[in-house]
Amino acid sequence: MEQNTSFINEQEVASILENNKKPDPSKVKEVLAKASEMKGLNLSDVAVLTGISDPLQLHELFETANKIKETIYGKRLVIFAPLYISNLCANECVYCAFRAKNKDIVRRALNQEEIKRETKILIDQGHKRVLLVAGESYPKQGFQYVLDSIASVYDVKTDKGEIRRVNANIAPLSTDEFKQLKAAKIGTYQIFQETYHRETYSKVHLGGKKRDYNWRVSSLHRAMEAGIDDVGIGVLFGLFDYRFEILAMIQHIRELEQVFGVGPHTISVPRLEPATGSDIASHPPFAVSDIDFRKIVAILRLAVPYTGIIMSTRETAQMRRDTFALGVSQISAGSRTNPGGYEENIDDEPSAQFCLGDHRLLDEVIRDVASMGYVPSFCTGCYRLGRTGADFMDMAKPGDIKAHCNPNAVSTFMEYLIDYASPETRTIGEELIEETIASMEGVAQQRAIKLVEKVKQGKHDMYC
Ligand code: SAM
Ligand code: SF4
């Protein structure tokens, strides 16, 4: 049965935005006070915040976002790497280097041996989570190619490590295919609507299955019906007015919450980056300035406090640093966005999906993050203990996240430091772990001490 997609109500978004174009300062204060209760915001509240431009109000917005982030997530930052398995694609997304008619890139779908080699490189850098990414066209095995690829990633084991959670960012599937994806043990299924604005959507998607807005916007319904309860949502910022996009994305989130009792596990905020063979990618019609980009992250933190926010290496090291304090809880590091990119190891490879803003290796990112006082987490515990979907949210909401996630963050960080870090990173990291444990209280502190001790004795994969 075709999914009703009227939950994205463009008229409603337009009229709420119109009514809150220039919010008065008392209204802004009221919304910020409401946000501090960490129960989320409604569409009108969010519209009020999108109307902020006064530097003082922006400062207050950022302060509120920082408080919420610290209260719910503490200083943890979850680390992952994308794994591009194929750039074959039958679609014509005008902003993407992988679009079917682009002759300027070399096409490649990795075979299973090549996927295992890429995986081994990521494991040897210290990664524990990957996000599997592909264009929308698979080699002759069809969708089975994706399932085989996930199995290949999980298959690779070294004496020190393995990938413990595979997330996926691939084209929308049928409910049956989503069931197979779940059976393949993926963590989060992630898909970005790109733009919620239907007219813009049809202008930037010129061919292939992706032209169908409704099929895409209903994909998370099918994923959740199939039992995948950690899903990731996102917008490609730069295609249309960011104010519209945020409100429409909140409509999507509220719809999932209403139908399934739990909203998305993560939100991604990709901004358009230059891409080989794409004009629009270098000249976004609704370019988002750096200050507006920070504002977007902060507003999302206030609107959906318990949903993780992901910041990729599309952004520069400085922008990534700036947004940690505003609500980001997951970052990629050391990324390559062309299939085979880790083995080839060429920076700014023309066959990449888009240009990277942060080119640093994992160790350098970890050192930087740790020197800022953030604890890089390689934890995959929740997913492996079945704490997903509503169970995760139940744990997150009363603040229990600190009693599990923080000890797990320090133990997996210690594992990274012992097994993979450079001496300089290890020194900075060990100091941070000591300080972090000292600042913990009660059961969280006891758990952290126990887990870290076990890791120091040579045990791996310690979590609670
Ligand atoms: N092919 C699948 C799809 O389109 O849903 C999944 C993978 S696609 C490679 C992942 C995401 O990359 C897209 O959803 C889009 O938001 C993003 N992307 C594409 N071109 C981009 C660009 N030029 N700059 C930044 N992000 C881009
Ligand atoms: Fe293909 Fe995805 Fe790129 Fe569109 S965004 S051209 S579907 S890889």
Detailed description of the structure:
By secondary structure, the protein is an alpha/beta fold. The protein folds into two domains: 71-360, Aldolase class I (TIM Barrel, Alpha-Beta Barrel); 398-455. Helices cover 48% and strands 9% of the residues. The protein is built from 20 helices and nine strands. The chain has helices spanning 10-19, 25-36, 43-50, 55-73, 112-125, 144-155, 175-183, 198-204, 213-217, 219-225, 242-260, 290-303, 317-324, 341-344, 362-371, 381-384, 389-396, 401-419, 423-439, 442-456, and strands spanning 76-86, 129-134, 165-169, 186-190, 231-234, 266-268, 308-311, 330-332, 375-377. The longest helix is centred in the N-terminal third of the chain and has 19 residues, at 55-73. Iron/sulfur cluster is lined by residues 89, 91, 93, 96, 98-99, 135-136, 210.
Task: Annotate the secondary structure layout.
Elements: H1 10-19, H2 25-36, H3 43-50, H4 55-73, E1 76-86, H5 112-125, E2 129-134, H6 144-155, E3 165-169, H7 175-183, E4 186-190, H8 198-204, H9 213-217, H10 219-225, E5 231-234, H11 242-260, E6 266-268, H12 290-303, E7 308-311, H13 317-324, E8 330-332, H14 341-344, H15 362-371, E9 375-377, H16 381-384, H17 389-396, H18 401-419, H19 423-439, H20 442-456
Parallel strand pairs: 1-2, 1-8, 1-9, 2-3, 3-4, 4-5, 5-6, 6-7, 7-8
Helix pairs in contact: 1-11, 2-3, 2-4, 3-11, 3-12, 4-12, 5-6, 15-19, 18-19, 18-20
Bound molecules: S-adenosylmethionine and iron/sulfur cluster (SF4).
